[in-house]
Fold each of these.
Amino acid sequence: MFSVSARTQYAIRAMVCLARAEGRQLTTAEIAAAEQIPPKYLEGIMTALKNAGLVSGERGKHGGFRLLKAPADIPMLRIIEALDGSVMPVNCVHTPDLCSLGCSCMPRQFWIGLKDVIDAYMRDHSLQDIAEGNDHGH
Amino acid sequence: MFSVSARTQYAIRAMVCLARAEGRQLTTAEIAAAEQIPPKYLEGIMTALKNAGLVSGERGKHGGFRLLKAPADIPMLRIIEALDGSVMPVNCVHTPDLCSLGCSCMPRQFWIGLKDVIDAYMRDHSLQDIAEGNDHGH
DNA sequence: TATTTCCCTATCGGCTAAGCAGGAATATAC
DNA sequence: GTATATTCCTGCTTAGCCGATAGGGAAATA
């Protein structure tokens, strides 16, 4: 349960790769080879990361991707949200209108609390923590 | 992301229903009608809850389901695990052998930490908290 | 014996995720 | 200015899971 999509795991590994490159540009081919990710599939992932403002992509020869911020300033939550949207256990967390059941949706507060806990954890861990293998958060 | 399956939401609503019945037996038909759940589908869910030791099912006339413990003694985690297995963001959390990538699986500690946070939250909230609409945990 | 209920197995349709393919746009190098 | 390398865009295919349904078998009661 609560399994993380391969897409998101790929994205995180790619970001770790870029973090270790320390500003150097890497091509999707390089990242894909280093992290065992299907190259064409990775392209779409990098696009999502770019649209989220996490990386910059430059085309042409000597093109590639680089981080737009220091790894320490990139919360893991940003990466996850860039890929799969926001953490939302059940739909009615954001759109309570869906609860046509009246009192039957008592669990709503429970899910909201869960979302808060997950968000907080992911905000308190930065890309740098992952890249360095540090599991204590910052 | 991290969306909860309809199956699990049905299970929780059914358990709330049983909690409010205070020991009285309820049939799947009754629960399904009260909670707007497809009756046949609910049957399979009740079987899962029974196999997890959370409810007892008795057949025949005047049969039905009842809780095996007081709602306060049923952590939400138990219900979720009964349906969708244990919380496990990525496979390698429990079976590190899957990490054939060596250092590429640096995020593992991150996922383990996330699992711990989620588990703790769900352990600290009981069925009674949900049934009463109390969102503060116990 | 009839009825009610839980229990088991199989099946179906729809949706999403994962991955692939082909090419268009753009920047560099010679 | 032509060739090359790279990001970018669009669509497609396949496989697997999820929600739901169907039909009937086993047990408990009246």
Amino acid sequence: MATIKEVSQLAKVSVATVSRVLNGRVPVTEAKRESVLAAVAQLGYQPNVFARSLATNRSGGIGVIVNELSSPYYSGVIQGIESVVEAQGMHLLVSSGHAGRHLEAQAVEFLRQRRPDALIVQLEATSDADLIAWSGHGLPTVVLGRYIDALADRCIHLDNLKGGYLATRHLIDRGHRCIAHIAGKPALKDARDRLAGYRRALHDAGISYDEALVVEGDFMEEGGQAGMQRLLARDLGFTSVFAANDQSAAGALLAIRAHGLRVPDDISLIGYDDVLLARYLFPALTTVRQPFVEMGQAAAMLALSALSAGDSKEVRRQFDPVLIERTSVAALQS
Amino acid sequence: MATIKEVSQLAKVSVATVSRVLNGRVPVTEAKRESVLAAVAQLGYQPNVFARSLATNRSGGIGVIVNELSSPYYSGVIQGIESVVEAQGMHLLVSSGHAGRHLEAQAVEFLRQRRPDALIVQLEATSDADLIAWSGHGLPTVVLGRYIDALADRCIHLDNLKGGYLATRHLIDRGHRCIAHIAGKPALKDARDRLAGYRRALHDAGISYDEALVVEGDFMEEGGQAGMQRLLARDLGFTSVFAANDQSAAGALLAIRAHGLRVPDDISLIGYDDVLLARYLFPALTTVRQPFVEMGQAAAMLALSALSAGDSKEVRRQFDPVLIERTSVAALQS
DNA sequence: TTGTAGGCGTTATCAG
DNA sequence: CTGATAACGCCTACAA
């Protein structure tokens, strides 16, 4: 691998000059510039990133931590991040947190050691306080999927309350009055917000909130299925269900079917997220979309803007959920 | 950020000694070792990876390129890779190739500049020849999802012919004799192999191959749907279909349903891959599983073994497809 | 077993 | 505008 020194010799200039033409900024005589470029081409020279990083104290890397690399939620986000990070000539260092508080801290530590120029984290088990502490520690950090007051300008998130409202409202608009809810883990803000949206929509429509109609799920198929079973067992006569995410909805669908009921004929079902499988469920799931890829892009732009003070903060931080109508919700004949 | 020199001063030893206790191998007096460790702890010292890389010419990173980061196929693979790479204290540099020949080459170049210690590539558009050329270029490269003779010991792949055989055979075992096939893009070896497996199973069962029963798909929902429509239009009386991957199967399912037929009552359907959505389809899709995560792990182990000559080559390179029975295939009453 | 010192490839400072 | 040269932080002969 050729070094800058070899280039400088071949081009008959100093290494400083080579560095200059390669890194732009400073003016260099046209003749020398060309001679350098020629030498670079001839040698196939590529700067050694380690040496450069050592000298500049910049790695050119953006660290990313998500709960689960293989989850349909986060992979969309990563894709969004990658597209903008790479377009800037920077690269991605990824690591997963596996939704464990300890593991998440470990992942952060792990990436921090690699000295990325910025960090983008989508953490589940970590507390707001820890997040605040970490991001104060020198490394520009953007928080994905969570809103923290103290870090307001570094948070990319979606208004889950609005999303919950949207979903519930859609059901109400279709004539439903008795609406059940399969919530997510109450420890998660997302889950609580969606529930809050559900309650508000109910309230706004003059429907009183009935605790018996909401069960706790876990954002996974099993929880959705179990929750639905409990709901069904209570025999409350609900005509529709809002599941806190698509995966719970898929589980709920199974339970409904096992109970001998049909969607949407007997029970209408609405999910949340709009991951790939929502389209494939039968009936295709009406749901509330989270723009994962766009949020990933925004996160990356925010991270990048923290580096080059140039980019002003015109990055969108708050995203809106949008209703995607498919066929799992039926209008109730009144 | 503390440097090794500061540690050495605090511990009252030379930097060399600090380096030694931190990097193992060489013997160091217990007293000094402890004093160094204490100093490290006190200062919260963390070696500067750039300086280290510059000196050792090793980055500690493994580069990974897949077609699409957000695809359910590749994200499983990445997860597998990550788990073993990180367990070795190394990190992951990811980039996507977006299935374009030019883009793939670009991604490789991009990662190569970051000087990972090894590369794991899952490429679609790139030719075998290019792959061979690249991997000869100094950087240990493992090829995922493709078998290339010249790179035999660096390829992790699944026997797709066997998989195609398995799927078709399952249908035959259930009494089906007239079996259609929605193939993948013929440009892809995976697709051709699955088709070959289909043909061989037919042949072994004494069923003659009928060209009219196979249509070209594209490994995506649209292709599966369109292909199924064409098949249905030909009115050939087939009782079952083998789709080259789950996504095509999902599309086919839509078309079958739109045609007023039911799965598996009227037509049995089998997919390939066993991605998440297979379980959620209705009816749940019988399919052939590719162990993505395990393959990713194997790829990582192979990459790692190329670095530390220690690990012998006991890494599994060839994986077997396994049939996952769900409910989209019915036995044919004869 | 330990310390000294040179080198890894760049960038950046500072004279010319 | 250009060229020396000193960092950058660590590893590793080599010598002691």
